[in-house]
Amino acid sequence: MGEKDAYLLRERLPLLLEAVQAEGYECIGPQWQNEAIVYDILNQVEQLPHGVQVNQYPGEYCGEIHEGNVRCFAWANGPQALKPFLFAPRETLWRVHRDNDGRLQFESATPEAPKRAIFGVRACDLAALALQDRHFLESDFPDPAYAARRENLLLIAVNCSHPASTCFCASTGDGPVAQAGYDLVLDELDDGFMIQAGTEEGQAIMARLNLIPVTDGHREAIEIQQEKAHEQLRQVPGKQLRDALFANLDHERWDDVAGRCLSCGNCTSVCPTCFCHSEEELAPLDGGSSEHIRQWDSCFTAGHSYIHGLTIRQQTRERYRQWLTHKFGSWHDQYGRSGCVGCGRCIAWCPVGIDVTEELQAICGSDDA
Amino acid sequence: MSSPYLPHEAEIFQRLEETPHIFTLRLRFTDPDIHAQYHFEPGQFNMLYVYGVGEVPISIVSDPQDEHAYDHTIRRLGRVTNVLAGLQEGDRIGVRGAYGRGWPVQQAEGKDVVLITGGLGCAPVVSVINYVLKRRDRFRRLIIMQGVKHSDDLIWREKYETWSKQNDTQVVLAASQGGAGWPWATGHITELVSEIDFDPQNCTVMMCGPEGMMIAAMKELLPRQVPESAIWLSMERNMQCAVGHCGHCQHGPNFVCKDGPVFNYPEIKPLLGIKGF
Predict the structure, then answer these.
(1) Is residue B65 in some structural domain?
(2) Of B232, B272, B245, B258, which is closest to residue B45 (Cα–Cα)?
(3) Is the domain of A299 the same as that of A218?
(4) Which of A165, A248, B107, B244 is 20 to 30 A distant from B234 in Cα terms?
């Protein structure tokens, strides 16, 4: 990084959007809608969340718009990550037609996979994307829908300048500065953006922008901004908590957290790495065809662990323990690292404000290997 | 990229009623090319799809070298198996597979083979019994232990009788509740492990059934100096995708669908029997 950086003045930001649009991409960008930062179709830079700052606390997500603040990326994140754009919340896997003789004809559903560019991607979400890639693509059975969308994705990251109180990416090692996986990465200052390419496609887009050299003043401001973004309130008690977690399966804290947890599954929905999904049959009324769909599922539901007459995880204690021991424990065995990227969404979007870092500290803080 | 989720049409070539609740479907893919390419290992499973209802994972009971058909023995219990139970010969379903890691039949060569099963857990090991009997000289003693709750639950009674007459073969059957005309033991099958005749230092144990039964059997086997690494268990969890994506079947670090369903005991020992995993 840093070898071919340049500076995009703020008034020239539309050029970036236009250059990406000219490559045939449907552009998606962060916007302030329904009191939250959400990713939606971005036709012009005016739609970006200018002056929006977001305060996030356990069980709380609260934004304010500062008139006169020109920045568009001065917030940490919203409830969505990249996940819904690749691993669709609900989609058809295949269809089957039945003729009058009862013969069945199966056909794969063709996934909708437009060329898509996403603006304002965070370091934590890039790290999560790399984990989802491992799960869905680096498999003996690569997922065709995920693969098609992934293939057509352009990622324009913005280094996080305003982490929320719920963020702890510095402690997981995934942020706040994007390390890999982007086509372009920006650092936002008041008068514009330092821009660098991570891929040839990113370089080609950069070449079409009216850029100026980065000044020493810009560099210094960015360095200070990045350092400040590293100072985060929360942290995980260690990057490798597997042994500590599995050594504490009978810890009394599991009962304690189960007393607060509603088993609603919000944490798994907003988690950018959670991959569980259920399969279901949608049989239309015409009787001649049926669709096999999948949709996001959560280990906090009773159905998740159901086998013929038996629910393996009947109690919230067992479900929370499954989530935490998987996310921070057995992910290491499955994918070579923790399944948490420190985005803090599960803390902010938990209706009762359960703080995963606090639970980890209580269960295995002193046992960190 | 071809979809790993897409079933192929298969025809119910034969349907056998085993008990009022258990039936066997003999299946063939309707596309001869697909049928010719299809192969499986003992202990693997298929996903069976019933039109408009859904999919269910079922182990394969037939011999892998039977080119004519592959068999599934099924208990009617849930939404999908109840509909499967009502299908007739000639009806079409969807099938994809075979999935997962099967029994270590090759590693068991030259050793005593001990099979301990409970309930319909006998189905996934029938393929091992057939495999051993077809290749009898490659294996040493064959011990078949099967436990059922009620004596009426025992399927394949004639098969057990036939197997018990083979050389170097011991068949031990037990019912927790024996009925009239039940010639075998009454009690838990695991209580009879002490009575079987095998070489603990040169054996492969394969178990399938309720986890409590398998754990109880382990408590009998380990004191007889059977090495932990000689014991293999077939695990059961919620499986929906069968390819390690949907997440339901996770047992600690393992995806039962692709890392199992057959596991070597040391692989699953840390979490085996812990409620909630």
Answers:
(1) yes
(2) B258
(3) no
(4) A248
